[in-house]
Design goal:
Blueprint: H1 4-26, E1 33-43, E2 47-58, H2 64-77, H3 79-84, E3 88-94
Parallel strand pairs: 2-3
Antiparallel strand pairs: 1-2
Helix pairs in contact: 1-2
Length: about 100
């Protein structure tokens, strides 16, 4: 069975991946692969308290610092991140 928190995490990770992929491609650095997971924190009686994104990508031609900047921007600007209104953290690394 799947619970609502798992569905939210799936929506967040896929939305983030699409936003990151688009930003990288528009900058002339298309990703060869992007793998993202999201872990949503839920507390009974309080609801969803946060989301943590973990992303690893293969992007030829950019530095780790450049990739982290693209990832931070995608975290802040993907539509699901904007809709959630909760703290979102991220760990991003080049594969």
């Amino acid at each position: 069975m799947t619970n609502p928190e798992e569905l939210l995490a799936a929506a967040h990770s896929s939305c983030f991946s699409m936003a990151l992929s688009l930003a990288l491609a528009q900058a002339g650095n298309p990703a060869e692969s992007i793998q993202t997971t999201a872990a949503v924190t839920f507390e009974a009686g309080k609801g969803v308290l946060g989301s943590h994104l973990l992303v690893s990508a293969r992007v030829p031609g950019i530095s780790e610092a450049e990739f982290e900047a693209f990832a931070a921007d995608a975290k802040d600007n993907c539509p699901i991140s904007k809709a959630l209104g909760i703290p979102i953290t991220i760990e991003a690394e080049l594969a």
